[in-house]
Design brief:
Number of strands: 17
Low-confidence stretches: none
Order of helices and strands: EEEEEEEEEEEEEEEEE
Strand order of the largest sheet: 1-6-2-3-4-5
Radius of gyration: 21 Å
Mean pLDDT: 89
């Protein structure tokens, strides 16, 4: 059993029958009243985002989650098909269960979160930074570099990313999957 003193970012807790991930938390203390603990929660098995407040010391119900390494195989009517790199077991996940599915490439690495109580997948995320190849972008104009000017580029996963003007078609770039932003060019 855990209490509100054990809350941390990224912890997954069970609340009113649903699973939520702790995005942010803090404590409010006043001179007259008991301390309160608040948390911003993002739904793991639903699409809700909520804020919850507890009295300090109240019980919470954390869920033990394992992070397993999977490989993306293909997408079809059943969803995104992934293979466990250790057991070669295959699972299919719905698009809403995957964080940043637009950046998935065939053979790409995916981390799947599995609820240890039920052995069911509860979500998946890509590595924080991945390398992709630019398949199409307009040429940059000379003289447009006084400010941090960006242009739109299509990458090999089919999604578009804003890149600096000096980036050319065919180059490899590193992008942040959490924000979808360009990080740097990668040498081949």
């Amino acid at each position: 059993m855990a209490t509100t003193a054990d809350i941390s970012r990224g912890m997954i807790i069970k609340l009113e029958g649903s699973l939520y991930s702790v995005v942010d938390f803090g404590e409010n203390k006043t001179a007259r009243a008991a301390a309160k603990v608040w948390a911003k929660l993002k739904g793991v098995d639903n699409t809700r985002s909520i804020e919850k407040t507890w009295n300090s010391g109240e019980n919470i119900y954390p869920v033990r989650v394992e992070k397993k390494n999977f490989q993306f195989l293909y997408k079809d009517d059943s969803g995104y098909n992934l293979m466990n790199n250790e057991t070669f077991e295959q699972i299919a996940l719905a698009e809403e269960m995957i964080d940043a599915p637009q950046f998935l490439k065939d053979g790409g690495e995916v981390f799947v979160f599995i609820n240890t109580e039920t052995d069911q997948p509860i979500g998946a995320e890509l590595p924080e930074k991945i390398v992709v190849r630019i398949t199409y972008c307009e040429p940059g104009l000379r003289g447009d570099t006084a400010t941090r000017a960006l242009k739109s580029a299509t990458v090999d996963t089919g999604s578009t990313v804003n890149v600096p003007l000096f980036v050319e078609e065919g180059e490899l770039i590193r992008i942040n999957t959490k924000t979808g932003e360009y990080v740097e060019r990668v040498k081949e």
